[in-house]
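[Q] Does anyone have a clean structure-token version of this?
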Amino acid sequence: MRQNKVGAIAVESFALLVALGTAYLGTPNQATAQAATPHAATPYANLAPIDQYLMTDQAAEIALARTAAPDSISRDAEVMVLGRHGFETAVKGKNGFVCIVGRSFTSAPDAEFWNPKVRVPMCVNAAAAHSYLVRFTKETEWGLAGRTPAQMNESIATALAKKELPAMESGAMCYMISKQGNGGDTTPHWPPHLMFFYSDTDPAIGGANLPGSPVVGMSDPVEHLTQFVIPVQRWSDGTEGH
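[A] Here you go.
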């Protein structure tokens, strides 16, 4: 199953962020396993009708995507929205950032791989748009096409071996500080945080996962991806995070 998927890593990281509470919002504990392990009984056993994954109001999806980062960043960012076969550019940007609303195929644990309610705003910088986002959008296309989590892992491994998916570009990062959105039934509310992406990097270089460290590090051998997650104090609208 999709335990090594990018989205599963993000959900595990979310569990770590939540676990510690108000101090740093993240150290490893049992919450990780609870968030990432599929439940025996799930209402999301199959791909739902495609329309359920889409937002009928494109303006609403654009607005939701922009909440991923402060207005000073998102107002000049490119915005992509989900169509029936994948993400499409809805608004051209000026600053190299790209805002998007992730769906369950990339932004939920295995048990909710096909949960059509998932809506996760994120805004990546130019380096991540050229690398991480390429994978993210391709995996969404595969999900919409009905590939299972296991098939998704196989597709990722094959694409990376053939160099059809890029390595992480230096400086790749992402804002995820929206008050809005829905991470799914397991993790409906994501705390405000930043993510930094590297290819095959030891989390120890950032002091991740150590007592008192605010940095959570996750490595995915299937995707050859290392992700650092750092909690922040405020949501994109400037209010205090919790």
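[Q] Thanks! Anything notable?
[A] The first helix runs from residue 6 to 20.
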